[in-house]
């Protein structure tokens, strides 16, 4: 149990997927314009990454590793993730229209979010078992959500500010991300 | 020939993937701790990009339009796996330094973006030159970012000491926050130089609302929407 909590805290805060591992930067910078959209994307990412890391872990342990197809993992994972997102989307549309309304447009975009593939590959690299993989996936996704919602909050303030022209747009967002990253470095003392 | 050179110029400067289009930010931020890493990552990506552009351009009349993205992903993933195995076998030090970011070339927006925006509409020769231009642009930007971070953060350049021992390196530059700061600085400089050109608009878009890889789809959807 203790190791699971350590994995969750480690992936969510200490090795934050965006601010420390630099995965999912594109959506982090692209979608963080509005708080509401960021929160929805965060929800969709939590959903997809948790399921994807569970499926990837099962596939790796019971299919790829026994058959000695270790080197195929990149291809297999990306296809599984792409298919999975499609299935999740269809399922939600049919069974939970309210959730689909909230997450809908973000689901297909997550397919190629590097964080999803990144988590699946890191889990294999760290030799996590099934439960640990799910915990790592959930932790990572929660970390992503925290980061993107915080950045959206900061950006809504930045929009009001009067900045020198060259700083407007991407650069000031990157600087805000740098400051957040410094703040998140403080969490590294949490690892006991 | 002129068209080929134009492609190289386009990739290196006019539409530099990192600094102007802001694609492939994940590897840019992650591996630019040292200049050597920048070269390694840049050249690996360029190798995959050249081959994927070539294959996709050759197959552009064969792949049905509806399933083109899955087809591209399979092609790119296969090429990345080949590249990864080759790097692991022949350049173990590069493999160690780049780690998980080599398989993640699959989801690098530059590759799917170029397939979608260029290779599926143009001849193989032009597509290869487009890939070389884009690959060089990516490599140069990565190496520059790596160089700045390495000099400021550890006082060395390509592993050789350039700052005197008495100068204390600013450690934060080789840590994650430094990556964001240095790339922000680069874009500020690009913006300040080209402030009146079309480029500024592109940089402000932040990679076409880019969700890595999906950005190509996004752009197309947006253009389609605008046309309607």
Task: Give a verbal description of the structure.
The complex is a heterodimer of chains A (192) and B (228). Chain A has one domain (2-186). Chain A contains 9 helices and no strands. Chain A has helices at residues 2-14, 25-30, 35-67, 73-95, 97-103, 106-110, 114-125, 130-158, 170-185. The longest helix of chain A has 33 residues, at 35-67. Chain B has a two-stranded antiparallel sheet with strand order 1-2. Chain B has helices at residues 2-14, 25-31, 35-58, 68-90, 92-98, 109-119, 124-154, 176-193, 199-204, 206-209, 214-227; strands spanning 156-157, 160-161. In chain B, 69% of the residues lie in helices and 2% in strands. Chain B has 228 residues and is an all-alpha fold. The N and C termini of chain B lie far apart (37 Å). The chains are: A mainly alpha (192), B mainly alpha (228). Chains A and B meet through helix 2, helix 4, helix 6, helix 7 and helix 9 of A and helix 2, helix 4, helix 8, helix 9 and helix 10 of B.
Distance N to C terminus of chain A: 15 Å
Proportion of residues in helical segments of chain A: over 70%
Report the average pLDDT across residues of chain A.
86
**Beta-strand percent range of chain A:** under 5%
Question: Got a strand count of chain B?
Answer: 2
Terminal Cα span of chain B: 37 Å
Order of helices and strands of chain A: HHHHHHHHH
Low-confidence stretches of chain B: 196-228
What is the 3D shape of chain A?
Answer: globular
Domain count of chain A:
1
The largest beta-sheet of chain B arranges its strands as 1-2
Global structural class of chain A: mainly alpha
- Main β-sheet of chain A: number of strands, strand sense, barrel status? none
Strand content of chain B: under 5%
Helix fraction bin of chain B: 55-70%
- E-strand count of chain A: 0
What average pLDDT do the residues of chain B reach?
81
- Biggest sheet of chain B, in brief? 2 strands, antiparallel
Assembly category? heterodimer
Q: With helices defined by DSSP (H or I, 4 residues minimum), what is the helix count of chain B? A: 11
